[in-house]
Amino acid sequence: MGNAATASTEVCSSSDTSARQAFEKWEAIVSDAVLPSSIEPLATGHWHGKVSTTQFDRSSFTLMSASAQRVMRTRRQIEQASAEFLLVNIVVEGSNWTEQNGRVADTPAGSIVFFDSARPLDSRTTDNAVSAIVRAPMHLVLEHAGLVRDELPLATPMPTTGALGVVATFFRGLAELPPDETTQAATVLDSEIAGMLSSAVLLATGRSSPAPSDSLYTRQQVLAYLRKRYTDPELTVDEVAHACLVSRRTLYRLCEGFGGPAALVRRMRVEHARRLLRADLNRPLAAVAAASGFATDRHFYRAFRDETGQTPGQFRAQLDPGTSRR
Fold first, then answer.
1. SS3 265
2. Of 111, 220, 268, 273, which has the fewest beta carbons less than 10 angstroms from its beta carbon?
3. CA–CA distances in Å: residue 92 to residues 159, 160, 225, 261, 267
4. What is residue 246's predicted lDDT score, i.e. its pLDDT?
5. How many CA atoms lie within 13 A of 322 on its CB side?
C-alpha cells in the first residue's frame, strides 16, 4: 500500500533572523524536498521562501515560491546520489532560466520543462517565482515511455496547453489536495505518477500513442475534454471517445467510477447550474438550463433533482427565500 507524507514550511528573514540565516535554512529544506543542491540568493536584503511537499513512496511533488535564487546541481552532488530522477518543472508564476545538457531553458509562466538529476544543472529564478516540481524515478519513466535516456527532451520548455496541459493540470490539482485526501489517494497516485510523466515525455518528443488506454493520463485527458465540452447539449459519447483516441468500451471503463460518461457529464452540468444560480438569483431557469448544456428544461429539472434532491427552484429559494420560482 502506498503512503504519502505532506509538509509545508515557510522561511523569512526578520529582526531575529538574518537574511543569511534564513537562506541557509531554506537551502537545507529545498535540498531535502527536491534534490541536494547548492543554492544562493540573487539579491541582498530580505529573504522569503515557501515550500509544500508531498512525498510518496517513490515520487514527490513540491510547490515552491521564493525570492530570486540560483540553484546548482554539481557533479560532486551527483556522484554522491543514491538514486536518479526525472525532474519536471511546471512554472506557475515568474520565470526561470536553467542550463543543462548544453541547452538553456528560458521558461516563462505557463511552461513545462524536463531535467535529469544525474546531469549538472544551473538554474536562476525571478523574484517570487512559483514552480510545481515533480520528481519520479528515472528508470520507471524510461520503462513506461520505452525510451532511452538520450531521447529525453531535456531543458526544452513547452507551453502547458493542449495535451501537455492535461499533465500540468493534474499536478496543479494534486498540489491543492488537503493532506488527508492526499494520503487517501497515495495508493493510486504513487504507482501512476511515473506513467503520467512518461506520457508527458512522449508528447514532448512528438511520439504517437502517448499512453495506454487505461492509464491515469488517459483518464485525465477524458476529464479535461469533458470539462471543456460539457455545456454543449450536442456532446456525445462517440465524440468524446474519438477526441481522446479511445474506444467506447474503454471510455465507459474509464468513467465507471462516476457511473459512466453520461452520469459524469450530467454531474458537471448540474454543478455548473448551481454556480449560475448562486451568481444570479434572478436569471431565468430556462436560461440556466441552456447555459449548462441541457437540451430541454425537462432534462434540466430531472437531472438537478436526481443529483441534489431538490428542484432548481427549491435550490434557488433556499439561497434567497424571497426569490420567486420561475
1. helix
2. 268
3. 11, 10, 22, 31, 29
4. 78
5. 0
